[in-house]
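Bumping my old thread because nobody answered last time. Still need a sequence for this structure:
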């Protein structure tokens, strides 16, 4: 989020106005922030709140257009979907929504260690975003873990999904015998995460860089 704010500060974007207490859900207000991007498209911030969970989201384009939710991979916030990419989709007549997973960006975070939620609950977060925007259904675009979550949502809530676009994602279906297997180095890398001390900042940086 700080990288994005820095880009705004050097003039790429012009903050138009911010409004607090626009709508209420539960006991916490949602904050809406409007920003003018290149091409006169607007980006709007919104916090979707459900009980003790807060999901930070950003939307691009006209809410009347077809909605697309961009779901990034593990340990990655919404800013990994570039502004330019989101703006281009909006220019093509799509209403684009990106959001921060729990423990990333501005969404709910927990103490380092064992996460108090499951992958299935992260999939439910997608539906929370859909509901938070008052949508019946949306097109889901998922990268890596985001693609896996998209498939879970489609299976559990088929009426809430208009289409799936999966990028570098694990599949839920049986493997195609004609497709090559994962490189062992990739498997070894992800296995390291199981024994990693997530409270050790240097160890986490070394793992991710």
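Sorry it took so long. Here it is:
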């Amino acid at each position: 989020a700080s990288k994005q704010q820095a880009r705004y500060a050097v003039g790429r974007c012009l903050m138009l106005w911010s409004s607090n207490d626009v709508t209420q859900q539960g006991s916490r207000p949602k904050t809406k922030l409007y920003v003018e991007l290149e091409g006169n498209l607007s980006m709007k911030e919104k916090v979707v709140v459900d009980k003790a969970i807060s999901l930070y989201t950003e939307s691009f384009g006209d809410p009347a257009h077809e909605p697309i939710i961009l779901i990034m991979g593990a340990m990655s916030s919404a800013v990994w979907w570039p502004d330019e990419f989101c703006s281009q989709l909006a220019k093509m007549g799509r209403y684009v929504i990106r959001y921060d997973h729990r423990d990333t960006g501005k969404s709910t975070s927990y103490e380092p260690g064992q996460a108090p939620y499951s992958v299935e609950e992260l999939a439910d977060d997608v539906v929370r975003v859909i509901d938070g925007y008052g949508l019946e259904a949306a097109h889901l675009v998922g990268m890596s873990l985001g693609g896996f979550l998209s498939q879970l949502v489609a299976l559990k809530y088929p009426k809430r999904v208009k289409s799936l676009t999966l990028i570098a994602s694990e599949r839920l279906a049986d493997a195609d015998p004609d497709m090559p297997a994962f490189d062992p180095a990739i498997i070894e890398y992800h296995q390291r995460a199981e024994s990693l001390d997530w409270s050790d900042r240097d160890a986490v940086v070394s793992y991710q860089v």
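The longest helix spans residues 119-132. Let me know if any region looks off to you.
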